[in-house]
């Protein structure tokens, strides 16, 4: 195990690749020595390592509280994903040390960052020290970013491969939502999804579509299913563009040397100026709650941070400006314990303002909030709320003095 005490100084911020790109040996070394390092902050994105939040002597900072960090004591940097690289490069979000997982060097001595490029690229350019875990099981992914071996202060060999997090299958609720979403996706659209049961269900509902492209901050196993079904476009060199890939060995094997997919930094994926230039950009984002004014909460509920701003606003704004684009917020109408997720007031911060929301989709239907008044929004959202909660929510709307259909 490498001794990081020679490379990490007291007060440093250490950042490593998120999702499947966590360099396991290097993170193990950091967690082992964290109590002896004199106060270190870890900037952690999407993580599935529960040990990170339980390590003594390690302060946590992130753009959200995702995966194993949900509900953990994390200082959350509230920013759009498109802004994060600039914050890192300017020093507003300091990064002193980067730990990364890379593929073996090519003939020119350059490595690929494997399954995550996103904001890691900006961190590599800004850090004082970069330590790399060189792993032959990390796919040599396509895209513009290569890192020369001279950039590394130290390297360690490994054969862990990317963290395996297969897409979980969606249930009946997710399949119903996916059917409504798929009906909004035109032929030859450019699709943004994430991972998880709902994303997998949406992709499953799109297998009969054709000429699709993918432009997404995060992709899962579902993109391989789209490719296998013939849904992806064949008239472009790289129909899939992403910043991070997270899934099973099937996905990671598909990425190896695949010219049909490019991993790009945030600056080439998230900004609305990029996505608005795409044809029929369809952005599908999830939420924890939507209130009767159409405001979206995707970060916290009941005082617990469970999500992130991430790229939600970036992608919705890009979709709104894209020719033929569609911005969608998709969520089940209730929580697992039956509470309504269409609510009077958000139980947490506003992630996306009402003016940035296009369609809202639940298992009960899809409603278009663009160009609507407060009254029209409330009426539309009531129609996609769970029927068990509609009478109560109707009473809330009446108390606001907003007229309902039929004089109710």
Can you name the CATH architecture of the largest domain? 3-Layer(aba) Sandwich
CATH topology type of the largest domain = Glutaconate Coenzyme A-transferase
Residue fraction in strands: 15-25%
The total beta strand count reads: 22
Domains, number: 2
Radius of gyration (CA) equals 22 Å
Helices and strands: which structural class?
A: alpha/beta
CATH superfamily of the largest domain: Acetyl-CoA hydrolase/transferase C-terminal domain
- What is the spatial order of strands in the main beta sheet? 13-12-11-10-14-19-21-22
Low-confidence stretches: 404-408
Report the top-level CATH class of the largest domain. Alpha Beta
Number of helices: 12
Shape: globular
Q: Give the rounded overall mean pLDDT.
A: 95
Distance between the termini: 68 Å
Helicity range: 10-25%
Main beta sheet: strand number and arrangement? 8 strands, mixed
Describe this structure in words.
The protein has twelve helices and 22 strands. With 408 residues, it is α/β, with parallel strands linked by helices. The protein has two domains: 10-157, Glutaconate Coenzyme A-transferase (3-Layer(aba) Sandwich); 172-407, Acetyl-CoA hydrolase/transferase C-terminal domain (Glutaconate Coenzyme A-transferase, 3-Layer(aba) Sandwich). Strands 13-12-11-10-14-19-21-22 form an eight-stranded mixed sheet, with helices on both faces. Helix 3 runs parallel beside helix 4 (120-126) and helix 5 (172-182) packs across helix 6. It is globular and about 65 Å long. Mean pLDDT is 95; it is low at 404-408.
